[in-house]
Amino acid sequence: MKNLKLTLIALFVSIGAFAQTTWIIDPAHTRVHFTATHMVINEVTGEFKKFDGVITSDDEDFTNTSIEFKIQVNSINTDNEMRDTHLKSDDFFNGEKYPTITFKSKSFKKIEGKKYMLTGDLTIRDVTKTIDLAVIYNGKINDPYGNLRAGFKVAGTINRLEYSLKWNTLLGTGDAVVGNNITFVCDVELTKAKGK
Asked: pLDDT (tens digit, 0 to 9) for every residue of the chain, 196 residues total?
């Protein structure tokens, strides 16, 4: 009887492992954008055009989810070529030496309703720090082509100086030309992988 119980437990664990669902980021309906304060009085916005990631989930409501996300630094776009070149330089991201920004989740917890908290390791340049991100889960829907889709809004703030984005020219007032805190929002649309 004991051996039978152990066999059944192993079977259920095995079934659970194979029940994992894989989701693919839809780049045509996903945006990774950010905002920085400029000279205290205004904000500059930008986005990264190239990114990819793997999202796997064991549960229908995404409470047991693993996320790995990668951004290509040199895809940065602020609608100003000179500024983009500066951001790719060693004053900021150093896209030549550190071509990617990565995020790897540690936990994804439901707070209430559509609100979740995503915790994970963010790596920029050669610095890795654990951050918390606020997530709104917008639900799932079947599109006209038979694909199951899910939508999320992910938001957070980092201090750029903690990630060696070090350029820090000061104004006569003592304030920085570029603010230290960078706010970012990711509007993410996923499609369920076929056969997953």
From this structure: 555 544 444 444 444 444 688 999 999 999 999 998 865 566 788 999 999 998 998 877 787 889 999 999 999 999 999 989 999 999 999 999 999 999 999 999 999 999 999 999 999 999 999 999 999 999 999 988 888 999 999 999 999 999 998 877 644 454 445 678 899 999 999 998 876 5
- Taking alpha carbons only, the member of 46, 42, 43, 44 closest to residue 33 is 46
**What are the b/e assignments for 78-94, b being 16+ CB within 10 Å?**
beeeeebeebbeeebbb
Report the first-to-last Cα separation within the chain, whole angstroms: 35
C-alpha 7/C-alpha 14 separation (Å) is: 10
Residue in the block written with tokens 């790719």: 88
Q: Of 46, 43, 64, whose CA–CA distance to 55 is shortest?
A: 64
Number of other residues whose CB lies within 10 A of the CB of residue 176 = 18
> Measured at the alpha carbon of residue 162, what is the angle toward residues 156 and 167, in degrees to the nearest 5?
105
Query: How far are the Cα atoms of 4, 16, 17, 41, 59 from residue 10, in angstroms, in the given order?
Result: 10, 10, 11, 61, 19
Residue in the block written with tokens 């190239």:
50
Q: Per the structure block, which two tokens stand in for 13?
A: 């664990």
Question: Which tokens in the block code for residue 105?
Answer: 């989740």
- DSSP one-letter code for 27: G
